[in-house]
Amino acid sequence: MAGIKNPQWLAQLRQQATSLGTQHVRVGVTGLSRAGKTTFITGLINQLENHQRGLLARRRPFDRLEAVRWQRDGVEQPFAYIEALQALAGEPASWPASTRDLSRVVIDLRFRQTGLLKRLQQTRALRIEILDYPGEWLLDLPLLGLDYGHWCEQMRDWLDAEPRRSLAGALRDELAAIDPLAPQDVGQLQRLTGAWTEFLQRSRSEAGLSRNQPGRFLLPGSGIAADMLLFVPLLSANRHTRGEAGSWWSECEARFRYYRDYVVKGFYDEHFSRLDRQILLVDMLAPMDAGQAALTDLKAALESVLQSFRHGRNSLLSRFWQPRISRLAVCATKVDQVAPAQQRAVQQCLEDLLTDSLSEVRHGGVQVRGFPLAAVRATRQEGDALVAGLQGQSGWVRYQPGGIPEHLPLDLQVAGPELLDLRPPAGLHRNEPFPHYRMDELIGWMVEGHTL
Ligand SMILES: Nc1nc2c(ncn2[C@@H]2O[C@H](COP(=O)(O)OP(=O)(O)OP(=O)(O)O)[C@@H](O)[C@H]2O)c(=O)[nH]1
Ligand SMILES: [Mg+2]
């Protein structure tokens, strides 16, 4: 009878079904610097690890989720989950550190089977794979569609306009004065590269600008020889310039080409190829607070990131979005900084900012959904005010975040919200679900479409 109860063919079939039953979902978390990627990924692992107690428990198929394992062993450059938790759960609590290099997240989920399938296969598995990286690198993707002469022209245009013109100051004149065909001076190139890096830093910190290229000047990451990061835009060069070996042009052009074809392309292939789902995280509130120039730059930056899906060898639509990426989640992040009733308006402003790009993506057959998100909720509502703690201070403040327009005006002139430098809530622990806004909805969306 034992043979009938557990025949060999059934065992074999079970094994096959088990291996067939592991599905993979590669999630592209796309966001500029400080968009909230690392905090989001930390919150995602936390919500999954605590699925039995959080809002996820009430959501299908997570009501059948049996086990969750965040994988560290065997993962190359694993995501620093523990370090991020230590910061968030610390006394006093602080946010995870800004990301300096690429890291990988692998999370295995095991679901209980029900009904007829149960006899063949007791569980089904889903492996979620995500990359984390410094947001600065994303802004290099548009370089894939440019050659060095084009880039020089583009930088000249950008530096002609405020606020970059003032931020660059004398550096702009010096770069414009260089004859691209003259022999290159190594010492001057080193000094100029340093000055360009400082200019990018100031553009980011003083003016809240997003498009700071080359991104690796701000955060090189591992695996790039410093020598290859020595080039600057020659503002008097253009797409027709050609220089002899040893000239400013030929030295800068060769390094630019290496940067584009190995550094940027390598990251592009790793991040964007074989994605199933894409989550675009955008901090909309900080640029609304910083003003029109920051919003204009954010718009251009996000449009170029969405467009750079087209810069691969083949077109975006044939190579990446279809048939694999079938869904794009567009998320305004950190919306806990405003009142719950204002959160949809923040999301609406983001979607207004990206109207053209999003309609193009939708036109390509991709389902787009918006989620106003807070991975870690740092505020609580009391009456019509918010209560939160400030970084570097003890105690609590009560504040009203100011108005958010229902729609973003076309000229991008907004009287932005009042933003404070909030610290994470006290008492976070790895084994309790973090307070959040809509993480459960987003996680549900992420696994939807898989047979679990
Ligand atoms: N209130 C609130 N603030 C958040 C939240 N997520 C992130 N922040 C804030 O945004 C900052 C940046 O978040 P990160 O998660 O480091 O952003 P990132 O996209 O990983 O940034 P880079 O690593 O620099 O590219 C944090 O230091 C916090 O100040 C959130 O859910 N709520
Ligand atoms: Mg990060």
Your description of this structure?
The protein is of the alpha/beta class. The protein has 2 domains: 2-137 and 274-447, no CATH class; 139-269, no CATH class. It contains 17 helices and 10 strands. The strands form 2 sheets. The chain has a 7-stranded mixed sheet, with helices on both faces. The chain has a 3-stranded antiparallel sheet with strand order 8-9-10, with no helix packed on it. The structure holds guanosine-5'-triphosphate and magnesium ion. Guanosine-5'-triphosphate binds next to helix 3. Guanosine-5'-triphosphate binds at residues 31, 33-39, 95-96, 98-99, 134-135, 333-334, 336-337, 374-376, 378, 422.
Q: Give the overall form.
A: globular
**Distance, first to last CA:** 32 Å
Number of helices: 17
Ligands in the structure? guanosine-5'-triphosphate, magnesium ion
Mean pLDDT: 88
Helix content: 25-40%
Which consecutive residue ranges, at least 5 long each, have pLDDT under 50?
Answer: 310-323
List the helices and strands and how they pair.
Layout: H1 2-5, H2 8-20, E1 22-31, H3 37-49, E2 65-71, H4 81-88, E3 103-112, H5 117-120, E4 123-132, H6 148-160, H7 164-168, H8 170-177, H9 186-205, H10 215-218, H11 248-272, E5 277-282, H12 285-290, H13 292-307, H14 316-321, E6 327-332, H15 343-353, H16 355-363, E7 367-370, E8 380-382, E9 385-388, E10 397-399, H17 439-447
